[in-house]
Amino acid sequence: MANDKDKHVSDKDKFMKGQRDEDKTFVDGQNREMIEHKEDDKRNPLVWITPIIILLLLIPLVIHLATGNGGVALTGGGEEEESSEESSGGGEEESGGEGGGEEASTGDFDAEGFARDNCASCHGQDFSGGMGPALAGTSLDEGEFTDVVRNGRGSMPSFSQDQIADEDLTALYEFMAGQ
User: Fold this and answer.
1) What's the CA gap between 58 and 18, in Å, rounded?
2) Which CATH architecture has domain 70-177?
3) Residue 118 and residue 99: Cα distance in Å, rounded?
4) Fewer Cβ atoms within 10 Å of its own Cβ: the N or the C terminal residue of the chain?
């Protein structure tokens, strides 16, 4: 033990006299050693946050798909694609609207079918609300309902006279009010 004590004293004396080890870096004007980090040791301490954020975003997505809610949107999309094959083509909303116009011209309008093809993807399969507000048992009067369908509101697209005739719009309103 005496040797260790003497060693520290001799090191202290050496540093007090201004002599320093060649392989150590000291803070200027102080008798403290400065710790130098090698390039390999300079890692960002927050690197672990990126995988955690990715996991936190993926977990709700997996739960959403596993519960079947994701399947509803896919099923609705599949139905719209089928209707686009039957009609003259174009985008999904346009083809659904054209299908509604064709039904109106024949005089035989299926309000529930039109609603399932064009409304269910946002307002829910049972029209009780989803991304958009509930349509079942709507509190809107027929004039407001017609105005919203014709001009759109928020992110809802508008439907022209070519896509759904006024008589068919009345039938659609009665279907929604009766839900």
Assistant:
1) 60
2) Orthogonal Bundle (1.10)
3) 10
4) N
User: How far is Cα 43 from Cα 28, in angstroms, rounded to an integer?
Assistant: 26
3-state SS, residue 38: coil
SS (H, E, C) 85-100: HHCCCCCHHHHHHHHH
126-135 CB burial, b ≥16 within 10 A, e <16 = ebeebebbbb
Length of the chain: 179
- Tens of pLDDT along 132-155? 888 888 878 888 888 888 888 888
Per-residue confidence (pLDDT) for residue 137, from 0 to 100: 80
Rounded distance between C-alpha atoms, residue 179 and residue 171, angstroms = 13
- For the chain, give every domain's residue range: 70-177
Q: Is 25 helix (H, G, I), strand (E, B) or coil?
A: strand
Return the HEC string of 135-158: CCCCCCCHHHHHHHHHHCCCCCCC
Cα angle vertex 134, ends 131, 140, to 5°?
A: 130
Q: Look at the block and give the residue holding tokens 């201004």.
A: 18
Rounded CA separation 159/152 (Å): 7
